[in-house]
Amino acid sequence: MPEWGEFWRLMAFALAVPVIMMAGVWLLAxxxxxxGIVDIFWSYGFIPVAFVCAALGSGDATRSFxxxxxxxxxxxxxxxxxxxxxxxxxxxxxGRYAALRKQFPNHTWAMFFGFFEAQGILIALLSVPFVLVxxxxxxxxxxxxxxxxxxxxxxxxxxxxxxxxxxxxxxxPANKGKTCRVGLWNYSRHPNYFCEWxxxxxxFVYALGSAGGWxxxxxxLLMYVFLTRITGIKATEEHALRSRGEDYRQxxxxxxxxxxxxxxxxx
Length: 267
What we know:
It is built from 11 helices and no strands. It has helices at residues 4-32, 37-44, 46-56, 61-89, 95-103, 108-126, 128-134, 143-171, 191-207, 218-230, 233-254. α1 (4-32) runs antiparallel to α3. It is globular and about 55 Å long.
């Protein structure tokens, strides 16, 4: 089992860093009047958590370095992609947050403060596999570390490919108002979310090489729930149905929502 004293000490930092950061992000969002920036900093927020906890932990340097590199590459790529998207549409706000404003017309920014801080807490919860690795002082890498890196790599490449395919589709004026069915989008309505989940599955598998790694089993499950039931597919599809109507309904009939598979007949 892990050294619980060190585990909880690092978890305290894993909570404090994003919670403080999100308070500042909330202030910036209020100044810009755009709550959509929370997505950017939710991604970037894992970088300082990983660096701080790795620096304070007693884990093996090689194992910790590889994980910090994985987290940094993922967070920087996703955060920068979201930064470009949000900046492109600013001051127009992401449809999900515009819908939240309508649901909470009174005390809107108080609601957003709670939402932003919840994102900080979520960063801490999802950092459990990282902390378990950062306190593992055993030298050398094993099967789980290599398997975790392989899953992470598949996810990061797939997510970047899905984003590129979607951007290429949207750049064509002839596709305005249409649903992307190009490449990975022909096999899943949300291949970017599926690949995001693969990345988190990779983090969990990587942590299985450390004592108590199984404790982090909830992280890919939690990410799956968020991606499919809360902030991901649910909100995205509601917006897609409002904007693309029947075309998207046909897409729903033929294509899996999350796990990639061959398209079905629309009849």
